[in-house]
Every structure is written in structure tokens, then in C-alpha cells.
Write a structure and sequence with these properties.
alpha/beta, elongated, six-stranded mixed sheet, about 25% strand, Maf protein, about 30% helix
Length: about 190
């Protein structure tokens, strides 16, 4: 029987990717809905810290407690763009400021802001402009014995014209500078590598 872990996310995109990653290691990933953990307003404020590590740990700790102590993985991830002084960074999910949007609509608003800010940066920075950026993903684990985090970073370039299909979030606007596993979308592969 596979070892069971709780995934501290309600994002369908992340759940899809994380289940695939976990299954490659023979692990069973359980989502919050399956555990019967109802969604609360408090969840929207878990990512209140200045680092991916602190945000990932906050999620793992919160849902570990709510689950009654089931070993829990939390994560925080985002894109950091050099020309934008590291933005959106830990604010990637809600960077557009559109608290009224969710899922694809929120992704579209975030990506529209990204494209606009990149075009402005190109015009203002001239020859100093760079499209370099990185995708950062931090996984946090919490169980009764303790907790830990692991950080992964993938270098790449930020696009202003989307490429590819599938994925979610900033996927269409990030091109990795490394060879990716065949059959994976950029971000799924990036999350797996990280």
C-alpha cells in the first residue's frame, strides 16, 4: 500500500501536476476535498510572508493541523523577472490585484499585467533590458517528526507573446533555458524539477 500524503492546495492545476509527480514515486496524494476539509476565508491569507519558504510552510502547517496530523506537503511558487526587480515573486498568484477573480480569469489578469509591465520595462530600460527570469518552487513537508523545505529554480526567459498549450498560471509566458522531460508542459516539468 502506498504511503499517503495530504496536498495543501485547492488549485486543480497544481493537484493534477503534483498527483502525477507523487505517483512516479509510488506515493498516494490526497487532496483537501477528499479529506473533507472545507474551504475557509483563512486560506486566502496563508501566503502572507516575504519568502516562498515561509509561505509553503504556512500551508503545510495549517493543513497538517486541520487534517489531524496527516503528513502534509505545501508549496509556494512563482516567477521572478529580472527587468521587474524580481516581481511578481511571492505575489505571483494575486499580482494583478484582482481579488474578485479566480482560476483562468485570474491567470489572464496576471498575464496581462506581466505583458504590460515587460513592454514598459523594455521601453524604459532600453539596451539594459533583459527578459531573464526564473521559476521558483518551494515544497514544504510537515509531519509529526518535524518539517522541511526544498527549493528549486529554473532559469529562463519571460515572453510577451504566449507559447504552448495547457498548463496554467504564467506557463505560456515562460520559456525554460534547460532541456525538459519529453511529454511535459513547461510548468509541469518545472514544478517537478523544482
Amino acid at each position: 500500500m502506498a504511503r499517503r500524503f495530504l496536498l495543501a492546495t485547492r488549485s486543480e492545476g497544481k493537484l493534477r501536476e503534483l498527483r502525477e509527480i507523487f505517483s512516479e514515486f509510488g506515493l498516494e496524494a490526497i487532496d483537501l476535498a477528499t479529506m473533507g476539509i472545507p474551504e475557509t476565508a483563512r486560506e486566502n491569507n496563508l501566503e502572507e510572508f516575504d519568502t516562498f519558504e515561509e509561505n509553503a510552510l504556512a500551508k503545510a502547517r495549517y493543513f497538517f493541523d486541520l487534517s489531524g496530523g496527516m503528513p502534509t506537503f505545501g508549496d509556494d511558487s512563482g516567477m521572478c523577472v529580472d527587468a521587474l526587480n524580481g516581481e511578481p515573486g511571492v505575489y505571483s498568484k494575486r499580482w494583478s490585484g484582482r481579488e474578485d477573480l479566480e482560476r483562468q480569469e485570474l491567470d489572464a489578469a496576471n498575464n496581462a499585467k506581466l505583458v504590460a509591465r515587460m513592454r514598459t520595462a523594455r521601453a524604459e530600460q532600453g539596451p539594459r533590458f533583459t527578459d531573464a527570469g526564473r521559476y521558483i518552487s518551494v515544497a514544504a513537508f510537515k509531519d509529526a517528526a518535524g518539517e522541511m523545505t526544498r527549493r528549486g529554480e529554473i532559469e529562463g526567459r519571460v515572453l510577451t507573446i504566449p507559447r504552448g498549450t495547457g498548463g496554467f498560471g504564467y506557463d505560456p509566458y515562460f520559456e525554460a533555458r534547460c532541456a525538459l522531460k519529453a511529454g511535459y508542459s513547461n510548468l509541469r516539468s518545472l514544478r517537478g524539477v523544482a
